[in-house]
Amino acid sequence: MANEIEAATMCFACGPENPIGLRIHFHFDGEVCSAEFTPGEHHVGFDNTVHGGIIYTALDDVTANVLYKQGRKAHTARCEVRYRQIAKVNDPLKLKGWIESERRRLVILRGEVRRATDDVLVADCVSTFMLEQLQ
What does the pLDDT read at residue 8? Predict the structure, then answer.
């Protein structure tokens, strides 16, 4: 990483040591952060449908990891999600996040969740992250 940044081993979304977490493993190619995640029976909102909060969490983390993988420490300032289709339990999902623009300490990112089986857009977001100031 570009800077020393603490490991997020207990992060609910991606922490490998969190026993109740989603354990999403993110990949970064220098521009786009991506991952695959299959929600299970513990991620239900209603009637075999994945809870919207789980979808939000995946979107928040795929966008956050664009910056994290660059060694840049930032925090979510705002995340606006648009839910477009339902996701069912045990349907694999593809996650993708990227930077749209940057101005001083604010970074605007976009993210999306698609069903892996048919590439249908499940949800997308526009997120604003505030970079931590260097001390």
Answer: 79
Chain CA centroid to CA 54, Å:
10
Beta strands in the chain (DSSP E): 27-28, 32-37, 44-46, 49-50, 74-83, 93-103, 106-115, 121-131
Measure the CA–CA gap between 135 and 133, rounded to whole angstroms.
6
Q: Which pLDDT score is estimated for 134?
A: 64
Q: Please tell me the distance from the alpha carbon of residue 64 to that of residue 79, in angstroms, as a whole number.
A: 11
Average pLDDT by stretches of 10, the chain with 135 residues: 62 87 94 96 92 96 96 96 96 98 96 97 98 77
Q: For residues 99 and 33, what is the distance between their CA atoms, to the nearest angstrom?
A: 10
Asked whether the beta carbons of 40 and 103 are under 8 A apart, the reply is: no
| CATH superfamily entry for domain 27-131 | Hotdog Thioesterase (3.10.129.10)
Name the residue among 126, 124, 49 with its Cα closest to residue 94. 124
- Burial (Cβ within 10 Å: 0-12, 13-18, ≥19) of residue 51: middle
Q: Are 95 and 35 in contact (CB under 8 A)?
A: yes
